[in-house]
């Protein structure tokens, strides 16, 4: 994977096909390309989140995740290739345990809201879930390593936890806590 892009507008995709990392071409609506696109969108969403004020440790973690997502996308772009390592999944497990330990236990559903950074983490969480579904669909049609699916599953969980962390960090003064869902049932019961 040492090829570097020297020309962006090649016009080779005008026929509805795109090149994979192994030099083969496939349709732009192929399951593999859809999964690659969802991972790319997720990485771009994290780039927007990184443009916000963040605690230094969260920023460092997200930068690492961006690099790992690029590896994941590279792996998806070359059928049969392994680039994302199992250690990346373990790193997410460790981060989940670390950040979740400091949070109060959830007693009710929360809304994807609060500070801007928390809301952006929630948006990225939903894109991670979509990317995971795309990888699962791809794996049903052709061989895919386990690590990409596991990584996206853990990452969506971690982004949920980080959204809660970012609301508490309250770096824009608009948060401070989770935004709880108020169901009609709870309202009727006086909750």
TrEMBL record:
Keywords: ATP-binding, Cobalamin biosynthesis, Nucleotide-binding, Transferase. InterPro entries: CblAdoTrfase-like (IPR016030), CblAdoTrfase-like_sf (IPR036451), PduO-typ (IPR029499). It catalyses: 2 cob(II)alamin + AH2 + 2 ATP = 2 adenosylcob(III)alamin + 2 triphosphate + A + 2 H(+). One of its GO terms (biological process) is cobalamin biosynthetic process. Residues 1-25 are annotated as: Disordered. SUPFAM superfamilies: Cobalamin adenosyltransferase-like. Its EC number is 2.5.1.-. One of its GO terms (molecular function) is ATP binding. Residues 8-165 form the Cobalamin adenosyltransferase-like domain. Homotrimer. Belongs to the Cob(I)alamin adenosyltransferase family. This is Cobalamin adenosyltransferase. It comes from Rubrivivax rivuli. The lineage of its organism: Bacteria, Pseudomonadati, Pseudomonadota, Betaproteobacteria, Burkholderiales.
